Amino acid sequence: MYLNFTRSAPKSFCDSTSFTAQPRLNLSEREREVLRLLDQGKTNREIARTLHIVEGTIRDYISRILSELGVSDRTQSAL
Q1: Which domains does the chain have, with CATH numbers?
Q2: CB neighbours of 36 closer than 8 A, spacing ≥ 6?
Q3: What is the pLDDT of residues 14-67, one digit of tens each?
Q4: What is the pLDDT of residue 50?
Q5: CA gyration radius for the chain?
Q6: 72, 71, 43: which is closest to 58 by C-alpha?
Q7: Sign of the dihedral defined by the CA atoms of residues 56, 57, 62, 67, in that order
Q8: What is the rounded distance in angstroms from the CA atom of residue 46 to the CA atom of residue 25?
Q9: CA nearest neighbour of 38 among 62, 60, 22, 55
Q10: Alpha helix segments (H runs only) across 21-54
Q11: Could you give the residue ranges of the DSSP H alpha helices within the chain?
């Protein structure tokens, strides 16, 4: 999932009148790491092991991420 799409989009695509920029999310670098792993379908346990932190911290990060995205569950975050 790319959160800042306009940086990598071709200039001609960004100039299109049908293009609507998505708002930039206010996520920390760690939250972005968690979101990338979440987007890959990793479980909380897998994310915790990858980042060397406890699962409870992952749950906290995911709650903040879902709140920032304005969705209620991790499945919606992938859409």
Answers
A1: 27-79 (1.10.10.10)
A2: 1
A3: 444 444 545 577 899 999 999 999 989 999 999 999 999 999 999 999 999 988
A4: 96
A5: 14
A6: 43
A7: positive
A8: 24
A9: 62
A10: 29-39, 44-51
A11: 11-14, 29-39, 44-51, 55-69, 74-77
Structure tokens at 2: 């790319």
- As given in the structure block, the two tokens for residue 46 are 């897998």
List Cβ<8 Å contacts ≥24 apart for 53-61.
58/34, 61/30, 61/31, 61/34
> Taking a C-beta distance cutoff of 8 angstroms, is the pair 34, 43 a contact?
no
Both ends of the chain: CA-CA distance in Å? 9
Distance separating alpha carbons of residues 7 and 79, to the nearest angstrom: 20
Q: How far apart are CA 46 and CA 52, in angstroms?
A: 10
Q: How far apart are CA 39 and CA 74, in angstroms?
A: 9
Q: Which of 59, 76, 65 is nearest to 25 (CA)?
A: 65
